[in-house]
Amino acid sequence: MASPDSVIFLESYYEPIAANLARTRLEAAGIPCFLSNENLVSIMPLYSPITGGVRLHVRQRDAEAAIAVLSEVPVPLATTPDVASFAADAPDPVAPRCPNCGSSDVAYGAATRNTYSFWSGVLSVLLRYPLRGKRHHCFHCGHEFK
User: Fold this and answer.
1) CB 146 within 8 A of CB 135
2) Where is coiled-coil annotated (predicted)?
3) Residue 129: half-sphere exposure toward Cβ, Cα within 13 Å
4) CA count, 13 A, side-chain hemisphere, 22
5) Closest residue by Cα to residue 106 from 114, 96, 92
């Protein structure tokens, strides 16, 4: 029979960040714990499924309390947007919208599709460096626009 001071494996995480968040939640609750395989998974993420991910370990006597702490819903943020100033259905006036699908999941950066003009294509060949324009890219439908 295992003693209450023996260390047991409690949970496994594929990402070191998620494991560290769980570890800090347990330490904040006063439950001592540690992680294993963290450095290996951080350096070689493809080894995570093979090694069982980043493993969280606790003492046998703290296992039930640790499970209770990890199953709690995290505390909401201290600051929340003023609900009265924003209507629920009103779009954000600053965020660009995709003209194709209307999604606000849009980012501005280097274009993923061919945006070469004749002269930028010639310069790209001469400089051996692709000169791409910047455009908005919709992650919902994949449409790019200026």
Assistant:
1) yes
2) none
3) 3
4) 24
5) 96
Instruction: Lowest mean pLDDT of 3-17, 82-96, 98-112, name the range.
Output: 82-96
Structure tokens at 2: 């295992």
Q: Which residue has the higher pLDDT, 122 or 113?
A: 122
Rounded (10°) CA dihedral 30, 34, 35, 39:
120
Q: What is the DSSP letter of 5?
A: T
Point out the least confidently predicted range of 10-14, 77-81, 129-133. Answer: 77-81
Residues counted in the chain:
146
Q: What is the pLDDT of residue 95?
A: 67
Pairing of strands 7-13, 33-36: unpaired
Q: Which residue type does 30 have? A: G
Q: Which two tokens stand for residue 29?
A: 């609750």
The strand pair at 134-138 and 54-59 is best described as unpaired
* C-beta pairs of 36-44 under 8 Å, 24+ apart in sequence: 41/14, 41/15, 41/16, 42/16
